[in-house]
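Check this.
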Amino acid sequence: MKSYRSHGLEIASLGVFTNLLEPDELERKANLQYFDRMMQIAVFNEIPIVATECGFVLGQRGVSADRYESTFERLKDSLSFLLERADHYDLTVALEPCILDVVPSAKRMGDLIRQLGSNRLKVLLDPANLIANNTEKEMFSHLADHIAYFHGKDRKVNDTYGRAVGDGDIDWSLFLSLYHELTPDTPFILEYVNADNFTAIRDRVLQAAR
């Protein structure tokens, strides 16, 4: 971390993406213990946020009426443990909701935060993950007060996977105007960039922000 910071680069978050929905209790416990260990590493390196997605069972991703309630309760149970540990370590847990998962919308994410009742739980807001369920304005209306940081990627509303900013259906001029109005200075991390396209994608974001 000292090497990054000596070059003026701050590490906003440590990704600890693991399966919080694992139905096998021994494996889920192992997942949570792994997460706890990564929290210790975050503290040691002075990284304030640890991030995860909900997770899923292979072949059973998404919302299903016959298991939705039990799966959602399992997620809440896993998060309750992590939020207790986050309080111990003075960290923020950022959850990334997605239309493909058990927290498929901005409203549901807001509901989850209220149900758990901890200011340690925030949102990793990736608009590509929610654009098929929520407008740009709806994302901010439900979540503006709870955003830890953003992923910058795009998506066509009927796509399964994301695309680089500007290659999908998100109105980036609107999204970034809301960003600057409601969540200024919140970290915004581009995805789907590489050594060949990162300057072009960066320039798309800067142009949309104007």
